[in-house]
Amino acid sequence: MSLNATTALAAALLLAGLINLLPLAGVLGATRLLGLYGMAFDDPSLRILMRHRAVLFGLLGGATLAAAFIPAWRVPMAPAALVSMLSFIALAALEGGGNTAIRRVVLADVVASVLLAAALLWTRR
Questions:
Q1: pTM for the whole thing?
Q2: Are 92 and 98 in contact, with CB atoms under 8 Å apart?
Q3: Angle at CA 89, nearest 5°, toward 31 and 11?
Q4: What is the number of structural domains in the chain?
């Protein structure tokens, strides 16, 4: 079975969508946020912001997953997912590190970004 550009882009969107859905668990509260990010969010205002971030990632992840199955959404959603992941990678690099959980997210975003960018470029050829 040969891989074509359309299939590669759908697979990359599927991976990026799953990665972007993971933070959605944070909407459940402080315990899940601790598990996701390896740090306590003791300030209620910060918990509100992080839980809202979880909802936004749920929206992005859901739309990215849908794009894997809806061809008309693939080209618009791929850059959106890519910008999200690349911005996190850049922010982590600018801040200089982060804990183990953050570094794990950076690594996942790097892998998904490379695959997504390659598949997107392949579709443009």
A1: 0.88
A2: yes
A3: 85
A4: 1
